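Good morning,

Attaching, inline, the backbone tokens for the sequence recovery test we're adding to the shared suite. The designed sequence is right after.
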């Protein structure tokens, strides 16, 4: 279908409507960032009015172009676009900008406002999310497109600002995108040279274009207020299929404001009523607050109707493709719906039955089975795949021009890795994972938090989970990390004790709609002995009975991961002293706390002393052990030595644990 461009005069009307909807909303809220929407309105109008493919009546259409506003502080730009281009975002919602219960919060939130693709605000994250979406799109196209029809042939657009590019994650992601030659990715850089403190040259003087050129990008430079230049640049970017494109659009923050254009004063504060009136006069905008002239609505409506025709043509083509390609059609349905076999639990358990070993190795075995059963699964490591056991065996690596494989290579870029897999999860079709050492979860923590905030099914494989890493020393020995990850709302943190728990941890991750962190050991662990009544699904409750004496126990010992078998050995030693100890494995503290009180009380009887035992800090156990309980852990950094020496020095051997518990019970 031939490209029809909105005439320049009408485009300017649309851009001005965006400027004043944005400025009016910020003014009414007395809070927000009017400068970016006012400056980026021309680029946004050209993109949405001439190029972006979408259907506001089917906002999750798989073949839509994606638009990410990485500079999320300019959220009113996106809300204005969604309103004007037919999404279910009434004018009243724009008037309620940043207010309780509105669909127009201070930064775009995925799942809260229809048409918002990504939660943005932490600068640079959206830049990397776009790379993840572009990778997912390339991989999906490789799987589904045929000579007769291409169900996947869209573009990922990201609008970013100076702050996004100053954050280090942006270049981590851009370097990966350049390496993979993601020609389906277009960045529009709103280069207004202003940040909160003032001009960007206070702290920044690099040549952004040269940086991206060096990373393998197609770079264009334009006047971001010249409609013809904008259209020409986007056309060229779409035509470039061998490189991702960066359009450096020089703009004026708060464009049209006589007193605040090109000033940091428009970055995070309303213009003020007098200045807003002066801006209306300066731009010749003769409409009151929140008034959208009919000519603008007609222009946007015409664009929507054109897009619906394209959408209908795609639907017809897709139906024919689906009927003519039954194998690909089944794969499409399985992947987009992320279907799991009915007997997946049994199949995963069969891989680890009776096997001891490091849980990282056991996880690697389970991963192979998951990959065979769930085609949506894909992922990789931040250069640690051999240590993380995270490669999908028999599958190729994803590289430039070769997207049929399932193994991703992020390089030593944990920060970007987290945000890239978030982008893949947001895209749909895939269940992505990223892997590294647990201690380096700090490097991807911002993305982890956003995974949870957006409720994304993204998996994080964190190995080398405690001071038992050994000789590498304290820089590589996580002490506080498990406890800190448990503090992130919605992040499912699983620390399995053996093969059974590892298989069930993977099942929990596959069934959970949000993100999961698998916390895995480097050192080998034995198979946990369990009672005859145990069923593997019990571990999905987060905590379950491993062993218990007859009658009421004298003490309940809770443990996770590598400490469960030590706790069991300590219980046997306590029994020799006449102390009856119950052992409860707690692979997922969050899931355990979410169980009905009756279930927890059955495992943790009232009045019975409680002990928690874990090779890390103990803050997260406080709700279970209370003020009178005992935590056996480590409240200091580790040291460089073999793991067995560290266990002895730090008091983690079974005799030492038994002695501490016995002393605790005597108090």
């Amino acid at each position: 279908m031939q490209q029809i461009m909105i005439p320049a005069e009408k485009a300017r009307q649309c851009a001005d409507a965006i400027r004043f909807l944005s400025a009016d909303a910020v003014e009414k809220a007395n809070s927000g960032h009017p400068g970016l929407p006012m400056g980026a309105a021309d680029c946004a109008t050209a993109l949405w009015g001439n190029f972006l493919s979408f259907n506001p009546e089917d906002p999750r259409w798989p073949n839509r172009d994606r638009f990410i506003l990485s500079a999320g502080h300019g959220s009113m730009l996106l809300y204005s676009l969604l309103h004007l281009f037919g999404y279910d975002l009434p004018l009243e919602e724009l008037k309620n900008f940043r207010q309780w219960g509105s669909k127009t919060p201070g930064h775009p939130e995925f799942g809260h406002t229809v048409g918002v693709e990504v939660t943005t605000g932490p600068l640079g994250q959206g830049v990397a999310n776009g790379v993840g979406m572009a990778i997912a799109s390339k991989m999906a196209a490789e799987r589904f497109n045929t000579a007769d029809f291409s169900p996947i042939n869209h573009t990922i657009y990201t609008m970013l600002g100076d702050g996004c590019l100053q954050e280090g994650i942006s270049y981590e992601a851009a370097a990966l995108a350049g390496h993979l030659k993601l020609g389906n990715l277009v960045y529009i850089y709103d280069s207004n040279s202003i940040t909160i403190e003032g001009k960007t040259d206070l702290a920044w003087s690099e040549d952004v274009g040269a940086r991206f050129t060096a990373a393998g990008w197609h770079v264009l430079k334009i006047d971001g207020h010249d409609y013809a230049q904008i259209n020409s640049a986007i056309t060229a970017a779409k035509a470039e299929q061998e490189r991702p494109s960066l359009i450096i659009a020089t703009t004026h923050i708060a464009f049209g404001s006589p007193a605040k254009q090109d000033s940091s004063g428009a970055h995070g504060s309303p213009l003020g009523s007098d200045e807003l009136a002066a801006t209306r006069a300066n731009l010749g905008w003769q409409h009151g607050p929140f008034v959208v002239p009919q000519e603008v609505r007609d222009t946007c409506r015409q664009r929507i109707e054109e897009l619906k025709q394209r959408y209908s043509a795609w639907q017809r083509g897709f139906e024919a493709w689906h009927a003519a390609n039954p194998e690909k059609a089944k794969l499409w349905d399985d992947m987009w719906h992320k279907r799991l076999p009915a007997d997946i639990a049994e199949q995963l358990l069969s891989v680890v039955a009776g096997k001891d070993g490091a849980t990282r190795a056991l996880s690697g075995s389970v991963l192979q089975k998951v990959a065979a059963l769930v085609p949506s699964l894909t992922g990789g490591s931040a250069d640690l795949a051999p240590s993380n056991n995270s490669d999908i065996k028999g599958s190729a690596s994803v590289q430039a021009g070769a997207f049929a494989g399932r193994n991703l290579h992020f390089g030593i870029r944990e920060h970007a890795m987290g945000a890239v897999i978030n982008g893949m999860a947001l895209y749909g079709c895939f269940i992505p994972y990223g892997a590294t050492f647990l201690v380096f979860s700090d490097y991807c923590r911002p993305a982890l938090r956003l995974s949870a905030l957006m409720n994304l099914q993204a998996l994080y494989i964190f190995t080398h989970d405690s001071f038992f890493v050994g000789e590498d020393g304290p820089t590589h020995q996580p002490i506080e990390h498990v406890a800190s990850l448990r503090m992130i709302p919605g992040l499912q943190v699983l620390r399995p004790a053996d093969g059974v728990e590892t298989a069930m941890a993977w099942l929990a991750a596959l069934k959970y709609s949000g993100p999961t962190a698998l916390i895995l050991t480097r050192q080998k662990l034995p198979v946990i002995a369990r009672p005859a009544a145990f069923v593997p699904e019990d571990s999905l409750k987060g905590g379950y009975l491993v062993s218990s004496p007859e009658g009421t126990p004298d003490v309940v010992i809770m443990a996770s991961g590598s400490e469960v078998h030590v706790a069991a050995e300590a219980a046997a030693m306590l029994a020799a002293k006449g102390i009856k100890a119950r052992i409860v494995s707690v692979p997922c503290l969050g899931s355990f706390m979410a169980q009905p009180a009756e279930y927890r009380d059955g495992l943790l009887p009232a009045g019975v002393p409680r002990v928690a035992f874990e090779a890390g800090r103990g803050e997260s156990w406080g709700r279970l052990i209370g003020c009178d309980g005992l935590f056996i852990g480590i409240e200091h950094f580790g040291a460089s030595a073999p793991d067995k020496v560290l266990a002895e020095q730090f008091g983690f051997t079974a005799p030492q644990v038994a002695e501490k518990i016995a002393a605790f019970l005597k108090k």
